[in-house]
Amino acid sequence: MAFDPWDTRRSFRRYLERCYERRNRAWRFTGSTAEELRRWQEEVRPQFLKLLGQPQEPGRLPTLIDRVTEEETAAYRRERLLYETIPDLYVPALLITPKPAQGPRPTVLCPPGHGQGMYQVVDEDGLYKKYPWGLVERGFVVLVPEHVGFGLRTSESGDDPRANHTYYYHALNLLGESAMGFLLFDLQRALDLLATLPQVDADRIGCWGLSLGGEMTLLAAAADERIQVACISGFLSSYQSSFLDCGHCGCGYVFGLVQYLEHADIASLIVPRPLLVESPTHDIFPLEAAHQAVSELRRLYHLCGVPERLEQDIFEAGHEISGARAFDWFEQWL
Fold first, then answer.
1. Full-prediction pTM beyond 0.90?
2. I need a surface site. Which of 37, 52, 175, 300 has the fewest CB within 10 A?
3. 283: closest CA among 332, 227, 327, 245?
4. Could you read off the pLDDT of 190-240 as tens digits, one per residue?
5. Hey, how many other C-beta atoms are within 10 angstroms of the C-beta on 76?
6. CB–CB of 83/55 below 8 Å?
7. Three-state secondary structure of 74-143
8. Who's near 56: CB < 8 A, 6+ residues apart?
9. Res 68: pLDDT
């Protein structure tokens, strides 16, 4: 088809495509040994954290401010926590502990997706399939922290224009930070909190999330080696096939990130820790790109001599949790 110069929308789209072709993945791993991969990770990880634009205010070890038991049965105790991460900055979270408690247990951090927050993940049927309860039934402690700008950390009625994630991510950008960097900071403070709880084995912590929760699982596992096992659901693909192919929420766009790292490159920071990728066939994150990312990662797991630590669960569905392999995955590796 002949190029039409009057199709100005297409011409700018083509400009963006050329930008990606010329400026992408500058930090990708190009070595050929496990030792070279380890050195690459040590070099890239701090640069990756800096690029994400984490909070510039000094953080602190989280202080538990309040703890309310919402429900207690013979099988579990469900609590709502409130803890401080930065002076006068508070995070609510749901903590579910299986009973009877017999010493420290393996624990899974479950970051919510882009929706109604922690109560949606725990209580609603639908996309999440109440997956935290499946983990609790198998003996895992579960922590579901509230992202800033969602659920209890936003205005439920919508009457406060300064209490929603759209305002927050725009404001953070103006101040030299990013929503992704801040959400990652929050999850790292959640890891700090878990290490203080007697029912938690701090050496056996996993992370599993869908959508935005999958994105945060990717970023958190890449950034913090305290996460020993990960399951990324409904996200891992590529920026080229998702955020640069159609419009997503602005909170997921990090200034300059794709010039240096793609999804597969960020996930390369997780190797050789166990990683499961849940890929729905009809997801908003394309399956073909997910295949490609996993293929790249598979080479690195083979390079490290642990190919069994990477799996992909492809299932016939839309944008939702699978769980067909994930529950067994955490039991196997945690």
1. yes
2. 175
3. 245
4. 999 999 999 999 999 999 999 999 999 999 999 999 999 999 999 999 999
5. 17
6. no
7. CCEEEEEEEEEEECCEEEEEEEEEECCCCCCEEEEECCCCCCCCHHHHHHCCCCCCCHHHHHHHCCCEEE
8. 175, 176, 177
9. 97
The token pair that represents 19 in the structure block: 């930008």
- Chain centroid to CA 33: how far? 27
Is residue 298 domain-resident? yes
CATH of the domain at 252: 3.40.50.1820
Tokens of 275: 């990683």
Contact between residue 272 and residue 225 where contact means Cβ atoms under 8 Å apart: no
- Per DSSP, 152 falls in state G
Identify whether 100 is preceded by a cis peptide bond (ω within 30 of 0).
yes
Token couple for 137:
């039934």
Cβ atoms of 93 and 83 closer than 8 Å: yes
- The residue among 218, 220, 190 whose CA lies nearest residue 107 is 190
Tens of pLDDT, residues 141-172: 999 999 999 999 987 666 777 888 889 999 99
Which of 332, 327, 286 shows the shortest CA–CA distance to 129? 327
H helical segments located in the chain: 8-22, 34-52, 118-123, 131-137, 165-174, 179-194, 212-223, 257-260, 263-267, 287-303, 326-333
- pLDDT confidence tier of residue 100, bands split at 50, 70 and 90: confident
11 domain residue, yes or no: no
R_g of the chain computed on alpha carbons: 20
Identity of residue 271? V
d(CA 165, CA 112): 14
**61 in a structural domain:** yes
292 inside domain: yes
Q: How far apart are alpha carbons 281 and 195 in whole angstroms?
A: 37
| Domain count of the fold of the chain | 1
**Distance of alpha carbon 5 from alpha carbon 36, whole angstroms:** 47
